[in-house]
């Protein structure tokens, strides 16, 4: 079978920032587009951490898609200015974030029950003729039919694609992704569609690919944190063995370790950043090897626990 889908790395705040993206693309690759976690304008400014994440000098991946979150054209503007100054010509609008703090401000999925606000944002895209816009969204905030009122607005806006995570905002990440509702969205949308949600294996990619032959791509978040080889497995049509995966994950981990230990001050900052990856990494790693990594309180304990895990004799 020909591989036609584009593989998108999903935005994951705290995880898929520049260090992860750069190292992932060098060690693994197999991802066509890396999406940045959302940038936001808050209290009259853009966080310097977010600005750094989209600076060209922070990034060595070819296809980077920056994402912004905004409820109004006024909030969108400073973010667009930053991206324009950085030379970007593409941007993804977040209409899917379910974090209550964001949704309460009608950001992300909190925007979905408000077609008038979505229409304002879509209208505002015409003010940036040099940019290509895309949207990442859920089906709705509390009803899986909310997207229906938005579809005419979205269909009338020039967008490169829409990524759909077929859950509701109130569900956060609980419940299974709603494939039937996704199928309805896919049929009604005139833009290229990207599927996102619960893709953990090569077989999952193949299943979605065969069910939705007109898809533009698949966006993978947690699945790519767990198995960073998913993109190359799809490209090469073969799953890596646990041993092969373990070797490459070790390379990726060591490169991130090196980079982050130079940037972050002190072991607490470093461990706070690094340990959450191990909630996902190497799903077949036995609990007895994962637990000491997650519990490590010093870099020495962390390193020794990680060395045990990478021996790969599990
Ligand atoms: C910790 C975390 C952070 C996330 N950050 C973002 C984000 O910045 N922008 C966004 O559009 N989605 C964000 N998401 C949602 C993911 O991009 C994705 O839609 C979701 O995890 C479902 O895909 P998956 O099952 O492949 O992980 C986040 C999800 C998680 C768990």
Description:
This protein has an eight-stranded parallel β-barrel with strand order 1-2-4-5-6-7-8-9, surrounded by four helices. It contains 14 helices and nine strands. With 314 residues, it is α/β, with parallel strands linked by helices. It has two domains: 231 residues, TIM Barrel; 69 residues. Helix content is 44%, strand content 17%. The chain is globular. Helix 7 links the parallel strand 7 and strand 8. The site of flavin mononucleotide (FMN) has 21 residues, from strand 2 and helix 9.
Beta percentage is 15-25%
The shape is globular
Tally of separate domains? 2
Main pleated-sheet profile: 8 strands, parallel, barrel
Bound molecules: flavin mononucleotide
- Global mean pLDDT: 96
CATH evolutionary superfamily of the largest domain:
Aldolase class I
Q: CATH topology of the largest domain, anyone?
A: TIM Barrel
Strand order within the widest beta sheet: 1-2-4-5-6-7-8-9
- Just give the CATH class of the largest domain: Alpha Beta
Secondary-structure element series? EHEEHEHEHHEHEHEHEHHHHHH
In whole angstroms, the N-to-C terminal distance is: 33 Å
The share of residues in helices is 40-55%
Quick overview:
By secondary structure, the chain is α/β, with parallel strands linked by helices. It contains 14 helices and nine strands.
